[in-house]
Specification:
By secondary structure, the chain is mostly helical. The chain contains ten helices and three strands, in the order ααααααααββααβ. It has a domain of 137 residues: Hypothetical protein af1432, CATH 1.10.3210.10. A hairpin with a 5-residue loop joins β1 and β2.
Length: 198
């Protein structure tokens, strides 16, 4: 990976295809918090952090081709990522990037999905962790209003708690975060509770 060039290429795609960059930038910000909070568990590195940020920024570009209802935009986003002529990342990293973006919503990864089958077997775990971070972060900006300012992750007694900070009411974001913590729950093997910090 060439991180600087990768960032430029992501920004170029974002500028061409994203109508709500403030949402995807906030999701990338929150995904970074989740990724850092899970560091001791996933033990992924800077390349994965860059790929997660890229996937977060590009996860909704499929809306540009699925207007007005956005149906299937997660799959279209993945296809658009795969179709791009990347100069900064390898084909293997492109496949990983597209899969993370694809799984930001709807069905969880499983055998039979092209995005899952196309991954190198040793990339399955990497993708699951990154997609779990992205799903949760996307839920925490459910209304695209950038209301969650930060979060903390705790694992008391083997449970997973995510405490979100916001100056205003964010019950819809908390509920969406709970719903979209499904993949994270599967990976860590416990229920995930999302609450607002008081």
């Amino acid at each position: 990976m060439k991180p600087d060039l990768f960032g430029q290429e992501v920004e170029s795609l974002l500028a061409r295809h994203e109508s709500e960059p403030e949402h995807t930038r906030h999701v990338a910000f929150l995904a970074g918090w989740v990724f850092d909070g899970l560091q001791e568990r996933h033990r992924l590195g800077t390349d994965e952090a860059h790929l997660l940020r890229g996937a977060a920024l590009l996860h909704d570009i499929g809306w540009s081709r699925t207007q007005p209802d956005g149906r299937g935009h997660h799959k279209v986003s993945a296809a658009m990522i795969r179709e791009h002529s990347w100069r900064s990342i390898s084909d293997r990293e492109v496949t990983l990037l597209a899969a993370v973006a694809r799984y930001h919503r709807r069905a969880l990864p499983e055998s039979g999905h092209a995005e899952w089958e196309d991954l190198a077997p040793e990339d399955h775990t990497r993708m699951l962790w990154m997609a779990a971070c992205l799903r949760l972060a996307d839920g925490l900006d459910r209304r695209h209003l950038q209301l969650v300012s930060s979060l903390e992750m705790e694992f008391p007694d083997g449970n997973c708690w995510i405490r979100v900070r916001s100056a205003v009411e964010v019950e819809q974001e908390i509920e969406a975060g709970r719903k979209k913590s499904d993949l994270l729950s599967r990976i860590v093997g416990t229920a995930v509770e999302v609450i607002r910090m008081r």
